[in-house]
Amino acid sequence: MSDQHILSINNLQKLYGETHVLKDINIAMDKGEFLVLVGPSGCGKSTLLSCISGLTEISSGSIHIAGKDRTHCEPADRDIAMVFQSYALFPNMSVERNIGFGLEVRKVPEAIRKQKVAEVAELLKIGHLLHRRPAELSGGQRQRVAMGRALVRDPALFLFDEPLSNLDAKLRVTMRTEIKRIHQTTGASIVYVTHDQIEAMTLATRIVVLRDGIIQQIGTPQEIYNTPVNAFVADFMGSPSMNLMRGTAVRQDGKIRLSIPTPGGSVLELEDMRTDSSAISEEKRDILIGLRPEAMTDTLSGSRDPGQIADCILDVVEPAGADTYAVINLGGTETIARLSADANVQAGQTVPIRFDLSKVSYFDVDSGARL
User: Fold this and answer.
1) Helices (H) and strands (E) in the chain, counts
2) Per-residue pLDDT tens digits for 120-169
3) Is residue 318 part of a domain?
4) Which of 236, 261, 280 is the last residue of a domain?
5) DSSP reduced 3-state for 111
6) Of the residues 197, 217, 236, which one is the last residue of a structural domain?
7) CB of 170 within 8 A of CB of 155?
8) What angle do CA 154, 170, 208 make, to 5 degrees?
9) Pairing state of beta strands 190-194 and 206-211?
10) By percentage, how much of the chain surpasses pLDDT 90?
11) 111 domain-assigned
12) Segment (H or E) for 69
């Protein structure tokens, strides 16, 4: 195992009776990384975090933290600190004592303890709250205190279990920025669980996408977004998610010719000029064609590829401030086009839509695997 791996999980399995919750999990995390575990409810992400922390015993496999085998260690002996969704603060203690309680238990001298608490409080911008009790704090302030209690420990690894899910939408955005800033400032190694893929994309240096206890893909936010390994990742990651249109593809004259059926019985014809997609041959095949909403725009948005324009009927129009989203039925499914903010369009209107195929993805219809 490399010395730089702050966390190494090897062939981890977790079963509850006959139920196989986590299946052959392998993760190697470098020091200073912000690793986000994301997936739908029931995918096993919180269970995996619980296994890393030692709160849940694994069925087989191994967990190394900071180069040491911690597979069967108690949570207190794993050199970790955890931030919970529920804050888990002591209501009868001041903010200062809540933050420093772990140091107090470890018999850290009071002068050092006070210094560390003051440093963390300044980092989190809660120095003026040190003498208050949790009941006197807002949700965002309580979450800062919970983070402070973890930071003051200076552990090898921080574990965050959906820490922002109890906050309102605006405060979630604010706290997301704070967590990102703290990571950049401290260089801490963080494993973070969320069901919110926007949180995952904005916070992570790498993302682990889980489904039914199986890792689907590990990669940077850009890799996950631009080159999803299967249709599930393509659909789950991104807001709005990737459009997955059923159609046909065939290689002709060095180009990939795509045909996508429309509700009126006509066919939308597009050309992919790339020559590196070896999965598409001279024999026509059914595929799923993946395009992000920003690759389907109106002619006002501009493009380097002026030839890929087709008239489309807009089913629904959704103004969203900086953008206007339009729902278009293509390939037997509802797709979303991202139009310019000042696009003067209405539902039922036929509008020229510009298709940018520079980052198109192809998936197998049956398995969903990337082609």
Assistant:
1) 8, 21
2) 998 888 999 999 999 999 888 888 898 898 888 889 999 999 888 878 88
3) yes
4) 236
5) helix
6) 236
7) no
8) 55
9) unpaired
10) 59
11) yes
12) strand 68-69
pTM for this model (two decimals) = 0.88
Residues 160 and 15 in one domain: yes
Average pLDDT over residues 219-223: 96
Residues 252 and 188 in one domain: no
Residues pairing with 329 in the sheet: 334
The reply to whether 92 and 182 lie within a common domain is yes
Residues 69, 9: Cα–Cα separation, whole Å: 10
CA gap 146, 131 in Å, rounded: 15
What average pLDDT is seen over the chain? 90
Rounded distance, CA 335 to CA 275, Å? Answer: 26
CA of 114: how far to CAs of 121, 224, 321, in Å?
10, 43, 47
Q: Cα(359)–Cα(274) distance, rounded to whole angstroms?
A: 10
* CATH code, 222: 3.40.50.300
Examine residue 352 and say whether the peptide bond preceding it is cis (omega within 30 degrees of 0).
no
Domain that holds residue 213: 5-236
State residue 298 phi and psi, 5-degree precision.
-85, 170
pLDDT digits over 247-266, tens only? 999 988 878 899 999 987 88
The CA distance from 258 to 270, in Å, is 5
Q: Are residues 258 and 216 in the same domain?
A: no
Closest CA relative to residue 288, chosen from 234, 220, 212, 238: 234
Q: What is the pLDDT of residue 273?
A: 78
Q: How far is the C-alpha of 183 from the C-alpha of 190, rounded, in Å? A: 8
Q: What kind and span of H or E run contains 103?
A: helix 95-105
